[in-house]
Amino acid sequence: MDEPLRVGLVGAGPWAKAVHAPGLAEHPGTTLTTVWARRPDAARELGEAHGASVSQSLPELLGQVDAVAFAVPPAVQAEFALEAVKAGKHVILEKPIAPDLESAERLTEAVLAAEVASLVMFTLRYAVETREWLDDLAAAGGWSGGSARWLSGALLSGPYSTSPWRHDSGALADVGPHVIDLLDAALGPIVEVVAAHRTAEDLWHLVFTHEGGAASTAAMSMRLPVEPTVAEIAVFGAHGYRALARRPVAGIERFIALLDDFAAMIATGTTIHPCDVRRGLHVQRVLERARQAATP
C-alpha cells in the first residue's frame, strides 16, 4: 500500500493497552489514527501514549479510518462491529465474535455483504511455530485424536481478574475459542460436541468428534492457582505424538503477524483468510453446542 492503513481502536482496557495500541502504532503498514472508549480518560491516556487522537463517539471514529480494531467484550463488539462493517470498514475482531450464535450470524452476514476484510484474534494461529506445526500435521495426515489443556488463575489475580464479562462467561468464552480453533485446525472440523461438563468452579471438560472420525478432549479453567499458565495441545495417530511447542512471547508479537496478514489482505483486495469472520462463526457454533451439552 502507498499509505499506511488508518485504523481506529475501540476499547482502552488492559488488552488494548498491551497489544492493540502498540501493535497498530508500531506496524509499518498501519497507523493508530484514533481511539474511542466508553471511559474517555482511558481513551485519552492511550491515544496520547501513541500519538493518536481521541474520538468522542463511534461515528466520529468511523469517519476518520479505513479499518477498526476492537478490544471490547463480545456483547459490545457485536453491536459496534456491525456499525463499522455497514460503514464499509475492515475489521479486526476479538474472540468470541459475539455473545451468542444469533449475533455472530448477523455480524458474519454483514461482513460478507459489505465485502470487507476481517480477521479474528485467534492469536496463537499467527505464531510461526503454530503455522509450522499445522503444516506438518497436514502433510503427514493420519491423526486419530488430540487433547488440550488450558489452565490458569487469570480470574483470581492479574490484569484481567476484574473483567466482568470474563467472570460472567467463564473459561469457555475466553480461552475456549483458542482451544476449539486449534483442535479443529489440527484434526479437521469439529462436527459434534459429544460431552460437556462444567463444575461449579468453572472447570470445563469437553469431548469432540471431528470430520473424518478423529476425536479430541479439552480441559479448561481460569480459576485454578496455576502459575505459569498451562496451555498444551497435542495430536496423536499413525505418525506418533506431536505437541505444539509454544514460545513464551508477548501477545504483541503475534498481533504484529496478524497485522501483516490484515494489511496484505486489504492491499490485494482479498477477504478470505483461515481466521476471517467465517472462522469466528464456526467457533461460535461449537461454543453454543458446548453450552447446550453442559446444560442440565
Automatic annotation (TrEMBL):
Keywords from the named record: Oxidoreductase
GO molecular function terms attached to this record: nucleotide binding; oxidoreductase activity
Record Pfam families: GFO_IDH_MocA, GFO_IDH_MocA_C3
Keyword Acetylation: no
Ranges for domain GFO/IDH/MocA-like oxidoreductase: 162-240
SUPFAM superfamilies recorded: Glyceraldehyde-3-phosphate dehydrogenase-like, C-terminal domain (SSF55347), NAD(P)-binding Rossmann-fold domains (SSF51735)
Domain Gfo/Idh/MocA-like oxidoreductase N-terminal, first and last residues per copy: 5-116
Annotated protein name in UniProt: Gfo/Idh/MocA family oxidoreductase
Phylogenetic placement of the source organism: Bacteria, Bacillati, Actinomycetota, Actinomycetes, Pseudonocardiales
